[in-house]
Amino acid sequence: xxxxxxxxxxxxxxxxxxxxxxxxxxxxxxxxxxxxxxxxxxxxxxxxxxxxxxxxxxxxxxxxxxxxxxxxxxxxxxxxxxxxxxxxxxxxxxxxxxxxxxxxxxxxxxxxxxxxxxxxxxxxxxxxxxxxxxxxxxxxxxxxxxxxxxxxxxxxxxxxxxxxxxxxxxxxxxxxxxxxxxxxxxxxxxxxxxxxxxxxxxxxxxxxxxxxxxxxxxxxxxxxxxxxxxxxxxxxxxxxxxxxxxxxxxxxxxxxxxxxxxxxxxxxxxxxxxxxxxxxxxxxxxxxxxxxxxxxxxxxxxxxxxxxxxxxxxxxxxxxxxxxxxxxxxxxxxxxxxxxxxxxxxxxxxxxx
Length: 353
Description:
This protein is of the alpha+beta class. The protein has helices at about 5-30, 35-55, 60-75, 85-100, 100-125, 125-200, 205-235, 240-250, 265-285, 320-330; strands at about 255-260, 290-300, 300-310, 335-340, 345-350.
């Protein structure tokens, strides 16, 4: 059985099911004989079976109750109301929602055909029963199936946004790993060879061994300096370029983004760029945002960046990304504040100008 998304959709399904049973109930209550209570019993069985099938994912309960209701409900009520046709229509409409694959349509068609057979044996008018069942089934699919389909598309879009954010982070990590490998691979190999050669020459040619050891030390110092430069280049991010990249990523994800850009330079620009990257990741992964505003101001020797978005999911606690951002900015005299109001999330970053 498909997972039924969203509580509102469940409520819509229950409402449609009740509406489907309304006509059969009125028809059964108009029956003058005592058989009306058999009809009421049949409708009650079907209603309970539907609730069980929806909650416990036991579709066979609903199928069995539908078949049991035929001898209880079909003969009861005026012929012109086609009592059981509405139950068959409900089965035809809910089958595509509760099943998957080709079975959903086969079950819907089977419910319409079964309604025709019931109509033939009860009133000799199978056409009316089939038309009612088909109309009720199509109505249910249109009113509940389309919202479920759209909800599925939204879930897929959100999963795609999260995957794209994670892919961007993974690609950046792989790029940095390749840079480190390229820098260290050759140097470490040469250092190992120099150290091994120095060990062999220490007894036979101490002067040459000392020279080789000094060369290994020089290579190690050079490699350390290159790694520091690489890390600094990795951490140093062009702030205007990062702003434009974030705006493009959010707009491609369907989020309306507005940016007020103020020139920022130096270490403050690097720290703001890293904070902006983290804020963009949070918007993509932890919200259902439809808009995002990035406001940057320079005042009193500080640069203040405020990132505000809607669709806040109200996480239970502070995430590792924000915590790490706070620690990093505290080391350079900056600070991070977070505010949640209704479904609006505001992240404010302040760094020395």
